[in-house]
Design a protein that fits this description.
- It is a single chain.
- The protein is α+β, with helices and mostly antiparallel strands and about 350 residues long.
- Helix content is about 40%, strand content about 10%.
- The chain folds into two domains: about 180 residues, NADH Oxidase; about 100 residues, no CATH class.
- The strands form three sheets. It has a four-stranded antiparallel beta sheet with strand order 1-2-6-3, sandwiched between helices.
- Helix 4 packs parallel to helix 7.
């Protein structure tokens, strides 16, 4: 089986937006990727998320989102730490269950464990100037990945500000869960790292698929049976021996082949309406990152329309999900029921008290 190529974090959209003219990172990156310079300069010139000039900007409410990101930026340096010199003997099965239970106590809705593959890790770092171009060499054997549900009534207001508040709360929740787990594991004498917003060294959706939380959908996001793509993911990697969970296949690929609602309603036309194609050695639906991100900067939120316009986000009866692989006709039945209830897409237009 052909080994997947590791993704370079320097090519991530968020990394590219951090490269400022006149800096070494800017000169190095666009010397290597000159074809991206024009569009990246254009995107960087737009208002940032939550800034004045974007469609949803509100001088009182937009800082809610920025406050969360500032907090996450302040704590991300705590993602790694000293390991207790005294290593406790553990039972792999019991410890795997204990870590799952601890994750649930601290707010995780879904959790799984997997053996990490080399291709799950970035090849090089790119988000911060001080780490730009550093090779990712430290790769733990095990990954604990957890998901938190994003508030449905907030996401159904996409692309307005409540959607962004729900999303950033998700990043904050998984960041804190990961901190507790990684600190606990290090107390037991094993190395552990919390991968969180602005400080991931591994690609969360790939780890989540391997750990059985869901499958990758047409929109490029992890889609879970329970909440659809309406989740945010955190990872803790460790050298502590654990028992991996298996992958799941509940028929999402077949479902997305027929559905396509996220592509139909994407304001940036960023999601492929066609069939899968080979992208970086992986057969998947192609996402236009630049046009997706352009809508983020224009709207002042991370849009979220593809989150709320997935039938799995709004809930599908368990027995019908179980039928997808056995009876493909149930897919159209689910889509028809969804359209009958929500029309073009689910949306709540009334304001929440937090917006007043």
């Amino acid at each position: 089986m052909k080994k997947l190529k590791r993704f370079d974090e320097r090519d991530h959209m968020f990394s590219r937006m951090n490269y400022e003219k006149g800096t070494e990172e800017y000169e190095d990156y666009y010397k290597r990727k000159s074809e991206l310079k024009e569009i990246d300069d254009e995107l960087r010139a737009m208002p940032e998320l939550g800034e004045e000039g974007s469609v949803t900007f509100n001088k009182i409410n937009s800082p809610i989102v920025n406050a969360n990101f500032r907090f996450l930026s302040d704590i991300k340096e705590l993602s790694e730490g000293k390991t207790n010199e005294v290593k406790q003997e553990i039972n792999e099965k019991k410890m795997s269950l204990k870590l799952k239970e601890l994750s649930h106590i601290y707010g995780a809705d879904l959790i799984g464990i997997c053996e990490m593959k080399e291709e799950f890790y970035y090849s090089h770092r790119g988000r911060e100037s001080k780490h730009y171009g550093d090779k990712v060499k430290k790769m733990h054997k095990y990954g604990i990945v957890f998901a938190v549900e994003l508030k449905k009534d907030f996401i159904m207001r996409a692309p307005q500000l409540p959607e962004a508040i729900a999303t950033v709360k998700g990043y904050t929740d998984v960041g804190i869960i990961g901190m507790i787990l990684s600190y606990y594991i290090r107390e037991l004498g094993y190395d552990a790292r919390n991968h969180m917003d602005g400080n991931y060294l591994a690609i969360a959706p790939l780890v989540a698929v391997e750990a059985g939380l869901g499958e990758l959908g047409r929109n490029g996001l992890l889609v879970t049976k329970e909440y659809g793509p309406r989740v945010r993911l955190g990872i803790v990697t460790t050298d502590m021996p654990l028992i991996p969970d298996g992958k799941v296949d509940f028929g999402l690929q077949e479902f997305c082949d027929k559905c396509g609602l996220c592509a139909m309603t994407c304001p940036g036309k960023s999601i492929s309406k066609g069939t899968k194609e080979m992208v970086d050695g992986v057969l998947r639906w192609k996402i236009n990152m630049e046009e997706c991100y352009r809508r983020w900067r224009s709207l002042g939120t991370d849009c979220g329309i593809c989150l709320c316009n997935c039938p799995f986000s709004m809930g599908i009866e368990k027995n019908k999900i179980e039928e997808i692989k056995k009876n493909p006709e149930v897919i159209q039945e689910i889509i028809n029921e969804y359209k009958e209830e929500y029309g073009v897409r689910p949306i709540i237009r009334t304001k929440l008290p937090i917006e007043e």
